[in-house]
């Protein structure tokens, strides 16, 4: 089974509409280059300024705090 929750697979799916393991060797190479050169894929979502975890969203919706 192929892992479908990886950065490389997300690139393949967003660009070509198929999972990474379904691509030709040339398109796999393109995805690899995209992953290491495009800043969009290099910056994890959890480091973005407005990121809020699901746990934080639930806590806020219930007006809970950690003391």
Keywords:
0% strand, 67 residues, elongated, mainly alpha, 4 helices
Task: Give a verbal description of the structure.
It contains four helices and no strands. It is mainly α and 67 residues long. The chain has one domain. It is elongated. The mean pLDDT is 86.
Compute the CA-based radius of gyration: 17 Å
- Note the run of SSEs as H and E: HHHH
- Summarize the biggest pleated sheet: none
Per DSSP, what share of the residues sits in E-state strands of 2 or more residues?
Answer: under 5%
Instruction: Tell me the total number of β-strands.
Output: 0
Could you state the oligomeric state of the chains shown? single chain
Summed up, the domain count is 1
Number of helices: 4
Distance between the termini: 43 Å
Shape: elongated
Q: Classify the secondary structure makeup into a structural class.
A: mainly alpha
Question: What is the mean predicted local confidence, pLDDT?
Answer: 86
Enumerate the spans where pLDDT stays under 50 for 5 or more consecutive residues.
none
């Amino acid at each position: 089974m192929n892992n479908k929750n990886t950065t490389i697979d997300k690139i393949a799916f967003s660009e070509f509409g198929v999972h990474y393991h379904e691509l030709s060797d040339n398109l796999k190479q393109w995805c690899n280059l995209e992953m290491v050169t495009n800043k969009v894929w290099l910056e994890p979502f959890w480091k973005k300024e407005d990121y809020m975890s699901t746990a934080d969203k639930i806590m806020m919706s219930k007006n809970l705090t950690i003391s």
